[in-house]
């Protein structure tokens, strides 16, 4: 492994040049979600729990969009290594068609049947009443977000990650400003509470879409070729479906699994406290993993490009070992940082801001302790599954490694402990993170096999 860490001059500088804009982009996007949680949390535990419940089905839409972005990266990064702009546009066209169709269907379901959807997450009627107007409006926002996210993913996969950072920075500023005005009724605006947060989110997504629309017309680096985007062709459609469908299904099933875990918490006797604590832990998780996902994105681009350039299997394997070692080291640093922040900032400062009850505070602290333990493994898994294996065209096995521990272990164990046995809080919190203990060994076995290294762009149409 130490031999793999010795790279050519400038290698690590190039990794961080790609990763840092992605990290900042993820940080900005996460901050947008945290601002929503924080401002709504100031209204009370019930309002924050309602938004958490409402965001669970919406999270499914988000992970499908992320799946499209990841699937697009698999193909585009390798086409970028070949310098094939036509097929990059074709891949983007397929992703746009799929993204708009799926997000529109989800928006229609959330708009027409909001209470029915929320009933799947929680049986707490007060939370359903509070969350219904929120879920109706926010669902529409992801039609716009699906389009902008696909274009941002294309730019990221062609070594232009700074564009996404700028787009989502603007979006965050718009969302934060409108949250302040519409949730609390400042500067003459009506105080709309949760509904105001939803309107702010929708407005920020429209701004993202408008920026992308203008940039795509003006950008000359990867010229927008509408004939290729609108008519991608059967060959690219087949390639995209072959390599991206496992990624999309992976993200959808992973998102569904996460939603099921939320639903389990929503049916516990302390559902309001658990959902409130889980909302805060979810934001801590997103902030903690921005570096991991940034490195995973850089890994996908670097490895995909090298495969597209025709590098041999041993060279690609060595490159992968190096990048995964870097990701694991980052996970250790994050775990140490969280261990310091828990007693010095989270407990005395952050948690009281959300007016948590004593039970909710206990749950939040326990969740964080368990999370710290699994953080290094989680960092490895993120880069291995979403970066390395997918970039090598091994999306099917990446999905197996990602989903089997969740659906076969974490979900049934949590349901048994939380609902049937009414287990103590620490035991339930540990079961929520139990999938992480089997993902890493499975990932290492697949990594060492080298079967994940494939050039998936051979034989495509000119």
From TrEMBL:
Keywords: Cell membrane, Membrane, Transmembrane, Transmembrane helix, Transport
Keyword DNA-binding: no
PANTHER family: MULTIDRUG AND TOXIN EFFLUX PROTEIN MATE FAMILY, NA+ DRIVEN MULTIDRUG EFFLUX PUMP
GO cellular component: plasma membrane
Superkingdom of the source species: Bacteria
Keyword RNA-binding assigned: no
Record's subcellular location: Cell membrane
Species, as recorded: Oscillibacter hominis
Pfam families: MatE
GO molecular-function terms, A-Z: antiporter activity; xenobiotic transmembrane transporter activity
Bilayer topology term: Multi-pass membrane protein
Transmembrane annotation, as ranges: 57-80, 92-113, 133-153, 165-185, 191-218, 260-281, 287-304, 316-347, 359-380, 400-421
Record's protein name: MATE family efflux transporter
């Amino acid at each position: 492994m130490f031999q793999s860490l010795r790279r050519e001059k400038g290698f690590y500088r190039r990794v961080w040049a790609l990763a840092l804009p992605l990290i900042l982009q993820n940080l900005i996007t996460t901050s947008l979600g945290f601002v929503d949680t924080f401002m709504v949390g100031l209204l009370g535990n019930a309002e924050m729990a309602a938004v958490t419940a409402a965001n669970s089905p919406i999270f499914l839409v988000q992970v499908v969009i992320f799946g499209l972005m990841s699937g697009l990266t698999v193909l585009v990064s390798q086409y970028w290594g070949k310098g094939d702009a036509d097929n990059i546009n074709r891949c983007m066209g397929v992703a746009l068609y799929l993204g708009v169709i799926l997000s529109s269907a989800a928006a229609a379901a959330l708009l027409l049947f909001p209470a029915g959807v929320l009933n799947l997450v929680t049986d707490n009627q007060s939370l359903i009443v509070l969350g219904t107007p929120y879920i109706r409006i926010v669902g529409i926002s992801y039609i716009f977000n699906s389009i902008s996210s696909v274009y941002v993913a294309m730019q990221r996969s062609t070594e232009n990650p700074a564009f996404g950072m700028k787009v989502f920075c603007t979006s965050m500023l718009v969302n934060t400003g409108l949250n302040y005005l519409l949730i609390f009724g400042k500067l003459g605006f009506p105080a709309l509470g949760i509904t105001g947060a939803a309107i702010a989110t929708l407005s920020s997504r429209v701004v993202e879409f408008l920026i992308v629309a203008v940039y795509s017309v003006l950008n000359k680096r990867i010229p927008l070729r509408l004939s290729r985007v609108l008519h991608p062709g059967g060959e690219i459609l087949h390639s995209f479906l072959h390599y991206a469908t496992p990624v999309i299904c992976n993200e959808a099933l992973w998102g569904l699994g996460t939603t099921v875990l939320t639903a389990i918490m929503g049916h516990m006797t302390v559902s309001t406290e658990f959902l409130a604590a889980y909302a805060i832990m979810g934001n801590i998780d997103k902030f903690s993993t921005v570096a991991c996902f940034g490195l995973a994105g850089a890994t996908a681009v670097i490895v995909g490009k090298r495969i597209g350039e025709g590098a041999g299997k041993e060279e690609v394997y060595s490159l992968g070992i190096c990048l995964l070692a870097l990701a694991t080291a980052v996970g250790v640093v994050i775990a140490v940082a969280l261990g310091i922040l828990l007693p010095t900032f989270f407990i005395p400062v952050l948690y009281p801001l959300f007016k948590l009850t004593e039970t909710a505070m206990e749950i939040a602290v326990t969740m964080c302790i368990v999370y710290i333990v699994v953080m290094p493994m989680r960092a490895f898994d993120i880069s291995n599954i979403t970066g390395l294996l997918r970039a090598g065209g091994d999306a099917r096995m990446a999905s197996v490694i990602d989903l089997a521990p969740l659906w076969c272990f974490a979900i049934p164990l949590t349901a048994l402990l939380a609902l049937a046995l009414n287990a103590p809080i620490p035991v339930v919190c540990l079961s929520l993170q139990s999938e992480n203990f089997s993902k890493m060994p499975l990932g290492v076995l697949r990594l060492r096999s080298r079967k994940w290294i494939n050039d998936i762009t051979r034989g495509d149409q000119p």
